[in-house]
Design brief:
497 residues; alpha/beta; Aldehyde Dehydrogenase, Chain A, domain 1; Aldehyde Dehydrogenase, Chain A, domain 2; seven-stranded mixed beta sheet; five-stranded parallel beta sheet; 14 helices; 38% helix; 21% strand; globular; disordered N terminus; binds nicotinamide-adenine-dinucleotide
Length: 497
């Protein structure tokens, strides 16, 4: 039986699967039923220390391994992911609840990223350039950083780790991976596949658990760089700790994504696209559409249609092929969503549909919440400003394009946004004016492709990008090389004749 068919995750340190020092465990629950699913190590600082030491020991050999050879292991990884896609998807649905079509997509994203980045093993381009001196060569190359720390959330348990681990490895870094406490099984399955593909011991290490090992990883003096995806609150703390140690940190954090809908939009398309963007992954996507900014003329019909679709969504266990929306990841997350809906009501928003817990027959122990549409939302309300991370979408009104841009930009986050219109002038103005890392035209706010940069502006990120070739900049540093073959002293900027 392969490692990821069992429901007990282990840490993976220096090529060995092991429990936490002291044997503490986190008990895992299937969010669709509330039933116990398995367990994982509740690691502490000592486990992180062992993992960082293993990564440091493995680094000299790994960085000396030619990048095309490193990439061969990644190609094999992608092939194994393709072969195991269905079982990985089923495991992930049981672990964090999203429907099978989406967990298949999550694995597919890891496959796409791994194939894409493995190609960099034969590129990792630097450049050559003329020197200002005769008989002098000048070029620059990328160099790995050392052992890097990877900290991830639970909503894309395989895609997000792949966005970080695969580029880190092809660039010649070793990795200590601390997944979210809710999704250690998917994390262990991904690591097991890299092991099976031939990754040498110590190059990738897994330490399961919650914020304690997360903090220990960020503070460990042996960690050369941290790549973090999660909430803005935690990300900013991670950034402060990294700043104190003077190490690089790449942050992907929260979002409050908005779609603008103009009078000339195709309402059928808008309804399909926004139902998917708002309620896909039960609204637990960093790019989920949480605000719709509509013109006064189109708003009533749009609210009716969105509410009708929300009412008819089949909510249940993500393993059931008929299910369109699964549960929230945990009871705590459901309580948070419920609290926000209460806040919205208190602030004067109108609950058009949903607004409360659901208990589908036979699934009463699961963490379900009804797809919810709030109307008459105003820009200053907390439900219009804060990330809810659940199946709740608020509809706001804007009379002009300029007002719509102000609403979209009037939050602390800047991950993704969209505009629905047939007017090419309005679309181009949106692309120019909206301050987010991703802009869609005639599409919802979700759905990134791995070969384009992914990330956000303002409180969503700190300028780094994942995906695209831009991710290589997070995991390498530049070295400039000068080779003087003139046989005499040539001083730059001084010896000009
Ligand atoms: P979270 O911030 O609670 O946790 C993220 C990770 O950080 C987990 O592994 C957690 O154990 C760890 N952690 C917690 N405290 C820590 C600390 N003090 N030091 C170090 N590590 C610590 O986020 P979550 O609930 O797992 O995920 C949801 C959040 O992730 C949402 O805000 C969502 O928008 C964001 N997210 C962002 C992106 C993006 O690309 N921008 C993608 C997915 C999710």
């Amino acid at each position: 039986m392969s490692t990821f068919e069992v429901t007990t995750a282990r840490n993976y340190i220096a090529g060995r699967w092991t429990g936490a020092t002291g044997g503490a465990v986190v008990v895992l629950h299937n969010p669709a039923t509330g039933a116990v699913l398995g367990e994982a190590p509740a690691s502490a600082a000592a486990d992180v220390d062992a993992a960082v030491r293993a990564a440091a020991d493995a680094w000299p050999r790994w960085r000396a391994t030619p990048a095309p050879r490193r990439a061969e292991i990644l190609y094999r990884t992608a092939e194994l992911l393709v072969r195991r896609k269905e079982e990985l998807a089923r495991l992930m649905t049981r672990e964090m609840g999203k429907v099978l079509a989406e967990t298949r997509g999550d694995v597919q994203e890891a496959i796409d990223m791994t194939y894409f980045i493995a190609g960099e093993g034969r590129r990792l381009h630097g450049y050559t350039t003329p020197s200002e001196m005769p008989r002098k060569a000048a070029y620059c190359v990328r160099q790995p950083l050392g052992p890097v720390g990877v900290i991830t959330p639970w909503n894309f348990p395989m895609a997000i780790p792949s966005w970080k681990i695969v580029p880190a490895l092809v660039c010649g870094n070793t990795v200590v991976f601390k997944p979210a406490p809710q999704t250690p099984l998917s994390a262990a399955a991904f690591v097991a596949i890299l092991e099976e593909a031939g990754l040498p011991a110590g190059v990738l290490n897994l330490v399961c658990g919650g914020d304690e090992p997360g903090r220990a990883l960020v503070e460990h003096p042996g960690v050369a760089m941290v790549s973090f995806t999660g909430s803005t609150e935690v990300g900013l703390q991670v950034a402060a700790r990294c700043a104190a140690r003077g190490v690089r940190v790449s942050l992907e954090m929260g979002g409050k994504n908005a779609a603008i809908v103009l009078d000339d939009a195709d309402l059928d398309l808008v309804t399909d696209a926004l139902t998917w963007a708002a309620f896909g992954t039960t609204g637990q996507r960093c790019t989920a559409c949480s605000r719709v900014v509509a013109t006064p003329a189109i708003r009533p019909a749009l609210v009716d249609r969105l509410a009708d679709r929300a009412r008819r969504l089949r909510v249940g266990d993500g393993l059931d092929p008929a299910t369109e929306m699964g549960p929230l990841v945990s009871d705590a997350q459901r309580a948070r969503v419920e609290q926000y809906v209460g806040l919205g009501r208190g602030e004067g928003a109108r609950v058009v549909v949903g607004g409360g817990r659901l208990a589908p027959p036979g699934l009463e122990g699961g963490f379900y919440f009804a797809p919810t549409v709030l109307d008459e939302v105003r820009p200053g309300m907390r439900v219009a400003q804060e990330e809810i991370f659940g199946p709740v979408v608020g509809v706001l009104e804007a009379r002009t394009l300029g007002e719509a841009f102000e609403v979209v930009n009037g939050v602390r986050y800047g991950l993704s946004a969209s505009i629905f219109t047939r007017d090419v002038f309005a679309a181009h103005r949106a692309i120019e004016e909206i301050r987010t890392g991703i802009v869609y035209v005639n599409h919802g706010t979700t759905g990134a492709e791995v070969h384009l940069p992914f990330g956000g502006m303002r409180d969503t990120g700190n300028g780094h990008r994942e995906g695209g070739l831009q991710v290589l900049d997070a995991f390498t540093e530049w070295k400039s090389v000068y080779i003087d073959y003139s046989g005499r002293l040539q001083r730059a900027q001084i010896d000009r004749d």
